[in-house]
Design brief:
Helix content is about 10%, strand content about 30%. It is mainly β.
Amino acid sequence: SNLGALLNNQLSAFPLQSVPDVSTIRVFVDDEEVPAAALISGTVEAGTAEWGDGWSYDAASNSVSFEGNTVPDYNADVKIYYRPLGGTPRELPI
């Protein structure tokens, strides 16, 4: 069961190459935009966050995670666009 949980997590969390301006993150699965997930209960700081469907950003791992019913299928085309906080930003989409 631990291996299954690990594999499921790998398919739902996507590490980013640089730290994003979170307000600029846009996520697409198979060319359809996925909305940001709403925080249902708990807090991110305490590690007790419960999310609705959509995506969330985890600053600790610098990754975008899919929540609820929005976890992409195995062969889905996932694209994540954002403006990085450091370096030379490029126009979106990259």
